[in-house]
Amino acid sequence: MKAIVTVMLKDGVLDPQGEAVRHALGSLGFAGVEGVRQGKVIELDLAETDEAKARAEAEAMCQRLLANTVIESYRVELA
Amino acid sequence: MKAIVTVMLKDGVLDPQGEAVRHALGSLGFAGVEGVRQGKVIELDLAETDEAKARAEAEAMCQRLLANTVIESYRVELA
C-alpha cells in the first residue's frame, strides 16, 4: 500500500525557502504570485495492506521522524 | 486561486534523500517500508482567478524554475 505524506510548515512559521521562490518567480516576470509556501512530500511503499494499519504506521513515522511537529504539520493520504 | 505543485524525481533517477529516510525508518524499527521517494510540494497563491490561465501560469513556472525537467516530473493541482 502506498502512503503519501505531505509535510508543510505551520501557518505563522517563517518560510524562507518559499520566500526565495516567490522572489525568483517575480524576477522571472511572473506577476500575481501573492504567496509561496514550500514543503516536502514523501511517498512510502508499505508492505501493510490494511488501510487503517497503514495510516497508523505512516502517522507514527511522521511523529517520530518525518515531521518536526513543533513547526510542521503533516497530512497522510493512502493510495 | 491556489495552485499546488508537486515535484518528484522521475522513476529511475536515484533518490538519496528517500533512501536515507528509508534507512532511518528501518533503524527506528519500522519494518515493511519497501521504498521511499521524497519530493517537494510548492503551494502558490495566484492572483489569477481563471482556472485554465492559472494552470498554464503554474506550468510555465514549473518549466522555468520549480522543476528540473531533465530529472524531475511535476504535477499541478488547483484548489
Automatic annotation (TrEMBL), chains A, B:
<dbReference type="GO" id="GO:0005737">
    <property type="term" value="C:cytoplasm"/>
</dbReference>
<dbReference type="GO" id="GO:0006189">
    <property type="term" value="P:'de novo' IMP biosynthetic process"/>
</dbReference>
<protein>
    <recommendedName>
        <fullName>Phosphoribosylformylglycinamidine synthase subunit PurS</fullName>
        <ecNumber>6.3.5.3</ecNumber>
    </recommendedName>
</protein>
<keyword id="KW-0963">Cytoplasm</keyword>
<dbReference type="InterPro" id="IPR003850">
    <property type="entry name" value="PurS"/>
</dbReference>
<keyword id="KW-0547">Nucleotide-binding</keyword>
<keyword id="KW-0067">ATP-binding</keyword>
<dbReference type="GO" id="GO:0005524">
    <property type="term" value="F:ATP binding"/>
</dbReference>
<comment type="similarity">
    <text>Belongs to the PurS family.</text>
</comment>
<dbReference type="Pfam" id="PF02700">
    <property type="entry name" value="PurS"/>
</dbReference>
<keyword id="KW-0436">Ligase</keyword>
<comment type="pathway">
    <text>Purine metabolism; IMP biosynthesis via de novo pathway; 5-amino-1-(5-phospho-D-ribosyl)imidazole from N(2)-formyl-N(1)-(5-phospho-D-ribosyl)glycinamide: step 1/2.</text>
</comment>
<comment type="function">
    <text>Part of the phosphoribosylformylglycinamidine synthase complex involved in the purines biosynthetic pathway. Catalyzes the ATP-dependent conversion of formylglycinamide ribonucleotide (FGAR) and glutamine to yield formylglycinamidine ribonucleotide (FGAM) and glutamate. The FGAM synthase complex is composed of three subunits. PurQ produces an ammonia molecule by converting glutamine to glutamate. PurL transfers the ammonia molecule to FGAR to form FGAM in an ATP-dependent manner.</text>
</comment>
<keyword id="KW-0658">Purine biosynthesis</keyword>
<dbReference type="InterPro" id="IPR036604">
    <property type="entry name" value="PurS-like_sf"/>
</dbReference>
<dbReference type="GO" id="GO:0004642">
    <property type="term" value="F:phosphoribosylformylglycinamidine synthase activity"/>
</dbReference>
<comment type="subunit">
    <text>Part of the FGAM synthase complex composed of 1 PurL, 1 PurQ and 2 PurS subunits.</text>
</comment>
